[in-house]
Each structure stands twice: as C-alpha cells, then as structure tokens.
TrEMBL record:
Active-site residues (renumbered): D244 (proton acceptor)
Protein name per UniProt: Ribokinase
Keyword set includes Disulfide bond: no
Annotated compartments: Cytoplasm
Cofactor note text: Requires a divalent cation, most likely magnesium in vivo, as an electrophilic catalyst to aid phosphoryl group transfer. It is the chelate of the metal and the nucleotide that is the actual substrate.
Cofactor: Mg(2+)
Major localization listed first in the record, in broad terms: cytoplasm
EC supergroup of this enzyme: transferase
Annotated binding of K(+), by residue: D238, V240, A274, R277, G279
Assigned EC number: 2.7.1.15
Length: 297
C-alpha cells in the first residue's frame, strides 16, 4: 500500500485537494429508440454534443461536490477542446495541467443511448493516447484519482508521485501491472471489470469498490465485505457518466472522513442522481441537488 496522509474508512483528511489524471473527450450522443444490433440501422435519433471523458467527468463531479480539483490531461489544439473543457472552466476546475498537444486531435466518444438509458460507446482516443509520462507535474493534493483511458506508463508515473490517497478506477478494463496495484489504496471497478481482473485482484489488499449498476455497490478488502448499499429509486434517463459520478463521490466521501457505510451510500446516491439527466457532465450534481432530491444533510 502507498504511504499517505490518512486512510479510508473513517480517518479524517483535513484538506480536500484532489488531482484527477485522465481523459478529456467530446461526447457525440445519439438518443435512439433502441440500441442497434450488428448490421442494423436505427433511425429517429436525436443528436447532442456534451463534454466528456472519464477523467474530465470525475473532475467535474468532484468539483461540484465541493472539492478543490485539478485536472491533469491532454487535448488537441482544436475547437473540440474548447467544447470539451467548457463546463470544467465554468465550474472552476484547475486546468493548468490540462495541456493542448499540437499534433493531436481532442478525444471523441461516439455514444448511443436508448429509451431505458442504456448505452453503447466507441472512443477515438486522440490526444488521450498521446499523453506522455515525462514530464508529469501533479499539483499539491490529498488524493489522486486515475482511470485507464490514458497510457499505462502515465498511470505508473502518477502512482509514484502520489502524495496522498491513490485511487484507481480500472476502466476501461485492462490488466493493471502489479507495481501500480500495490500502490493503489482504493480500486474501483464494475462487475464485468472485476471479473476480467480476477487474477489481478487475488494479490490486491487495498479497498476494493465494486459497482453493481441498479443494485448498488459493495466495499471489500481481501474478500471480506466492509459495506454494501443500494441506490435510491430514480427514473433513469441516461446512464452515461453515472459510474464516474460514483467514483468521484466515493473519493470525496473518504476525504471528508466518512466511514465505509456512509461513503458507499453517498456514492450510490450521487451515481443515481447522474442517471436522471442527459449527458455525462451536465448530469453531475451539486450538493444542493442531492439535498433537494434525497433530503440529505
């Protein structure tokens, strides 16, 4: 386990400075009657463009939940970058380490969402794939949150530079090198990712969060259940970004000193709220949104 200035599960970390290292995309979303089968053309869709990318989504979610957030990422020098960063700028996320690469395009995600809120996603990674590990500067932080939409060497370098809680959302799923896993304090995966990483997880001794979709999430360590929670009942419109909202909320909950049960319940509420609006980043809730919908204090 990495050394840090506190740990999850009830030990209070006095500051809430979060660095998110990851991807920035522009999401091009078609809301369609149903998801196409192989070879099928589905007509009658409505097209929208939203800021996206797992890194950017999680950064915005954390900022709206009250953290001091910096995003370390890469974009192209194009109009898509302006659109992809618009909400982050509007909400005051620190973008000093979000750099534009001259010979790359900003990442683009092509997304289809059906009437039940389920989705299919294809990503053209662009500048996210061109992210170089050296040099890598991380602003001062109490937690570092990464995903796997940037090259693994960047994640490796970031894990060695983490000065606080090191958190990894292992999505999209790929093998996690043992040296990175050994430094990971909090690992967040969904059910299919947990299954794909089963052999990796046998040697993982940190806090493992497994999201279960509409059934909620569990926290465990070394196979022992620490906490389990179900999300509140909501009318899901669009599930894109719900997992990112959960990740950000869980990290923020631990930074605020919440215990396992309270933390996973809070993260499930935030993830559920994110399904009630269209788009990934536009759906990320502020604290006041949660208070009004779920009567939270």
């Amino acid at each position: 386990m990495a050394e840090h200035k506190g740990s999850v599960g009830g030990i209070f970390l006095s500051k809430k400075r979060l660095v998110v290292l990851g991807s920035v995309n522009l999401d091009i979303v078609a809301h369609a009657p149903h998801l196409p089968r192989p070879g099928e053309t589905v007509s009658g869709a409505a097209l929208s463009r939203y800021p996206g990318g797992k890194g950017a989504n999680q950064a915005l979610a954390a900022k709206r939940l009250g953290a001091d957030v910096s995003l370390c990422a890469r974009t192209g020098q194009d109009a898509d970058a302006d659109a992809a960063l618009a909400l982050l700028k509007a909400d005051g996320v620190d973008l000093s380490q979000c750099l534009a690469l001259p010979n790359a395009q900003t990442g683009v995600a092509l997304i289809i969402v059906d009437e039940k809120g389920e989705n299919q996603i294809t990503v053209a990674s662009g500048a996210n794939h061109s992210f170089q590990a050296d040099p890598l500067h991380l602003p001062p932080h109490d937690a570092l949150l990464c995903q796997l939409e940037v090259p693994i060497e960047v994640i490796r370098q970031a894990s060695t530079k983490a000065s606080g809680l090191f958190c990894l959302n292992a999505a999209p799923v790929k093998p996690v090198p043992p040296d990175i896993l050994s430094r990971t304090d909090l690992l967040i995966v969904n059910e299919s990712e947990a299954e794909a990483l089963e052999e990796n997880l046998r040697d993982y001794h940190g806090i493992l969060a497994i999201t279960l979709g509409a059934r909620g999430a569990i926290l465990q360590r070394d196979g022992a259940i620490l906490a389990r929670a179900a999300p509140p009942s909501v009318e899901a419109i669009d599930t894109v970004g719900a997992g990112d909202a959960f990740c950000a909320a869980l990290v923020i909950a631990f930074l605020e000193g919440k215990g396992y049960q309270e933390a996973v319940e809070f993260a499930c509420r935030v993830g559920a709220f994110a399904t009630t609006r269209k788009g990934a980043q536009p759906a990320m809730p502020y604290r006041a949104d949660l208070d009004s919908l779920f009567n939270l204090q």
